[in-house]
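Saturday, quiet lab. Running sequence design on the structure tokens for the scaffold JK sent over.
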């Protein structure tokens, strides 16, 4: 965009001079120059040719000649049909890179920011949103990685970000696990079973479902429909009764609920640590649903909501292209929508956010459309600043890494498998470079998680993806380990150079002292210059995939540069210092870009 803006201004000036016509910026269209042609930026001339009533070739030629009158900006051009390919002056490229990364950014691995000022009102990002009746699974992995990465990207663009989590810690699904443990658990605990707390509680959620199916089958044999059988099955009736007792504050039910939820929280903490994600504030449904109920009562009083004959409370959104939506059950118990209303109001009261982004799978698209409509109808003006980042599902090849239940891919098992695969491949390739055991374990973790995070985040959130663990852990191709290895390679080159007295001062070398650039050097510098624009684009699109794609392009360009040119040549001191400095800037940007994805960069491999 920087060079495009410079060229854009000049084209408008010269268009006026050459054709005596005033152009608007909106009439100009630029593209990156295609690799088979010489140039840095391409002006699409077809539309301009129609304006001046000349051929595209002649129009391009006239504009190109005019641009050459400013050699400090443009050094050459060529016209291919209706495309004017423009070459930027090397000095401008060098100065731009020098100003951006040496002057403004400093060490991007420590701080990446496009803004010197932080807005007062924060952006809230909600992600994870687990239930306390089961462990985190593969869908949660994509959710958490997206949420954390988007938070990092928005911070890099100058936003004040608050990472929030809402834990669904109450409701009928929680009571199912509690009831099953009470009936079938025989006092089993995480300590006695050797299971993580979330896995233990999840085990009894499955037990509830297994016993319920047996009861439903018996009732169906007696002539009940499946729906009636499920509703009247003994276990389901007891679970509903337990929920009512919980809401009434029954001390025994509350004590059981607290004990089992604490088991789950301990388990979640381990998973979050392994995924490398965290939160600034955690909300609990048990603390927000009552506020949600009061908001529903407010809506009834205002006439925005209505009550059916059975006492349940609904909203009619048919005029908005939706439907009627339940907000409170006939027995007075709340639903997900109830607590989401309370949580949203509580968050705005606490943070006065400029924007609240919900990172939730696309199966909840309807839910959030309703939530936003209800809040707006209730008169909350800030509801227009709510946004649902709807991401698609993630699948695994059939039979890969199934959990013990055989129905979901467990997050802990997935992480363990990724680290094991990283260890196996690293040992096979001999990339341990005299690591001690502690360093090797850290490297396996770094590579395994890098593989997992990059493979998931390189796919646009809106796209359904197939996660193949075997493809993700590879030191070649578009993978996390390939990028991590390139970072380590650059640092290795720099360490070796630092031992040579004539090369040791490469960090203080001034990029703008270079006059000529080789093609691969030029390509690399142009990519580095794009980094701020890429960060901004990723923030606007809320897509870590933009960062991943850029990082892969940068790594490919560096490896080509490394392959084609000698980085260190004792007979060419100035050239070597320049290439080492350029390598250093590449390492910083690769490291900084990976940090935006929540990925660590190894210093050696």
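Result came back. Writing it out in full:
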């Amino acid at each position: 965009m920087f060079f495009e803006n410079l060229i854009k201004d000049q084209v408008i000036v010269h268009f006026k001079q050459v054709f005596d016509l005033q152009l608007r910026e909106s009439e100009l269209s630029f593209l990156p120059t295609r690799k088979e042609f010489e140039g840095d930026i391409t002006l699409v001339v077809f539309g301009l040719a129609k304006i001046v009533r000349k051929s595209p070739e002649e129009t391009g030629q006239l504009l190109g000649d005019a641009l050459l009158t400013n050699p400090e900006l443009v050094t050459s051009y060529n016209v291919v049909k209706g495309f004017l390919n423009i070459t930027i002056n090397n000095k401008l490229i060098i100065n731009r890179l020098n100003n951006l990364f040496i002057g403004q950014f400093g060490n991007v691995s420590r701080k990446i920011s496009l803004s010197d000022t932080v807005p007062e009102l924060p952006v809230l990002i909600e992600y994870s949103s687990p239930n306390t009746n089961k462990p985190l699974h593969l869908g949660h992995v994509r959710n958490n990685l997206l949420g954390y990465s988007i938070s990092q990207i928005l911070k890099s663009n100058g936003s004040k970000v608050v990472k929030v989590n809402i834990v669904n810690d109450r409701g009928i699904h929680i009571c199912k696990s509690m009831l099953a443990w009470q009936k079938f658990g025989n006092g089993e605990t995480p300590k006695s079973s050797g299971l993580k707390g979330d896995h233990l509680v999840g085990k009894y959620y499955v037990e509830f479902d297994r016993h319920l199916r047996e009861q439903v089958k018996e009732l169906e044999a007696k002539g009940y429909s499946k729906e009636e059988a499920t509703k009247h099955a003994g276990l389901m009736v007891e679970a509903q009764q337990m929920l009512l007792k919980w809401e009434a504050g029954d001390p025994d039910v509350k004590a059981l609920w607290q004990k089992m939820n604490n088991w789950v929280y301990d388990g979640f903490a381990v998973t979050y640590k392994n995924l490398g994600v965290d939160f600034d504030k955690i909300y609990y449904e048990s603390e927000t649903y009552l506020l949600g109920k009061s908001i529903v009562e407010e809506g009834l009083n205002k006439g925005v909501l209505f009550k059916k004959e059975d006492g349940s409370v609904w909203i009619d959104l048919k005029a908005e292209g939706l439907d009627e939506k339940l907000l409170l059950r006939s027995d007075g118990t709340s639903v997900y929508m109830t607590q989401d209303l309370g949580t949203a109001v509580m968050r705005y009261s606490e943070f006065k956010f400029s924007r609240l982004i919900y990172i939730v799978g696309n199966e909840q698209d309807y839910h959030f459309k309703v939530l936003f409509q209800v809040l707006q109808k209730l008169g909350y003006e800030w509801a227009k600043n709510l946004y649902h980042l709807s991401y698609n599902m993630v699948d695994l090849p059939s039979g890969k890494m199934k959990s013990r239940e055989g129905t979901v891919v467990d997050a802990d098992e997935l992480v363990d498998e990724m680290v094991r695969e990283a260890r196996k491949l690293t040992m096979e390739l001999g990339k341990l470079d005299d690591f001690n055991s502690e360093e090797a374990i850290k490297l396996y973790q770094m590579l395994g998680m890098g593989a997992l995070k990059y493979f998931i985040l390189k796919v646009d959130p809106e796209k359904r993806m197939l996660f193949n663990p075997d493809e993700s852990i590879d030191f070649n191709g578009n993978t996390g380990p390939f990028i991590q290895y390139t970072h380590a390679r650059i640092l290795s080159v720099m360490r070796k150079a630092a031992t040579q007295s004539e090369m040791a001062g490469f960090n203080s070398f001034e990029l703008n002292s270079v006059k000529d650039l080789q093609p691969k050097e030029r390509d690399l510098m142009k990519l580095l210059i794009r980094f701020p624009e890429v960060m901004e684009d990723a923030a606007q699109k809320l897509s870590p995939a933009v960062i991943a794609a850029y990082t892969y392009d940068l790594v490919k360009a560096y490896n080509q540069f490394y392959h084609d040119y000698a980085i260190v040549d004792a007979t060419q001191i100035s050239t070597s210092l320049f290439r080492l400095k350029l390598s250093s800037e590449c390492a910083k940007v690769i490291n900084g870009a990976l940090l935006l994805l929540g990925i660590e960069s190894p210093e050696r491999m």
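Notes for JK: The longest helix spans residues 197-221. The mean pLDDT is 90. Ask whether to fix the surface positions before the next round.
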